[in-house]
Design a protein that fits this description.
Number of helices: 7
Order of helices and strands: HHHHHHH
Radius of gyration: 24 Å
Length: 255
């Protein structure tokens, strides 16, 4: 049998170091949880988010936590690594919100049925975001987040600051990819809006006395809603495909 003295010695030595290693894992996990879609929304109570961060830490720490001394630099490094990974998750939601804003602006629905919550957005943005988060949950968002956290230690070792040039290149590439994805998703609405305005200009020149705006505005709104019903499943499929590719290698540079 192991004596009480041996247990106390282990707790004061390797056990304490392992505890601090788990604490550093919690710092990274908590930073990711602050930006993780669905779990990190402002509408989610802070205590609930803290409980989720602790639960995710218990799942991740056994695979990555190593006995090591804790320092302020190590805590800051873990927080930066977690925020970087969480920002990668969040940028996919921002891409949907941006695409929804573009689509709503092109169909004159940007000010109609806009939500007034913690993160105001148009009705199209809210619809796409809620649908995408539902798809993410069906794919096991919490499991994929744990996998990404565990894999992140291969690129960003515990307690070490990420290289500034590499993180800058990665961050700019992620932001550029997010905007490109948003523009691709909103392309049908932008093309439709361009064709509508071109046709409206031609009709106005041909019939100057006709109030084309009163005739065309309802048609634009109705056409936008019909286009949304047709294009939304395809938009979500493209978004889900891009998100799955990113999850397979979160720290790669999109080309």
């Amino acid at each position: 049998m192991i004596g009480l003295g041996a247990v106390l010695d282990w707790l004061e030595g390797d056990g304490l170091a392992l505890f601090w290693g788990g604490f550093l894992c919690f710092v990274r996990t908590g930073a990711v949880m602050a930006l993780l879609p669905a779990f990190g929304e402002q509408s989610v109570p802070a205590r609930f988010r803290l409980g989720l961060a602790l639960a995710l830490t218990l799942a991740v720490a056994p695979a990555v936590a190593n006995p090591m001394p804790i320092t302020p630099a190590a805590i800051l490094a873990e927080a930066l690594a977690g925020l970087a990974l969480g920002a990668g998750f969040r940028l996919f939601v921002i891409a949907l919100q941006t695409a929804g804003a573009m689509a709503a602006q092109a169909t004159s629905l940007s000010q109609i049925f806009a939500s007034a919550g913690a993160e105001p957005q148009s009705a199209i943005s809210a619809l796409l975001t809620m649908a995408a988060l539902s798809l993410a949950f069906t794919m096991g968002l919490h499991v994929r987040a744990a996998e990404a956290l565990i894999l992140s230690y291969n690129v960003l070792p515990m307690g070490q600051f990420p290289a500034a040039p590499d993180m800058t290149e990665w961050g700019l590439a992620q932001i550029s990819h997010s905007f490109a994805l948003a523009f691709s998703l909103a392309a049908p609405f932008l093309i439709g809006g361009l064709l509508y305005n071109a046709a409206l200009g031609v009709i106005n020149r041909a019939m100057p006395t006709l109030m084309v705006s009163f005739v065309g505005a309802p048609a634009l709104t109705f056409g936008g809603l019909v286009l949304l019903a047709i294009a939304a499943p395809l938009m979500l499929a493209v978004w889900l495909s891009g998100w799955s590719v990113w999850l397979a290698d979160p720290f790669s540079i999109p080309r």
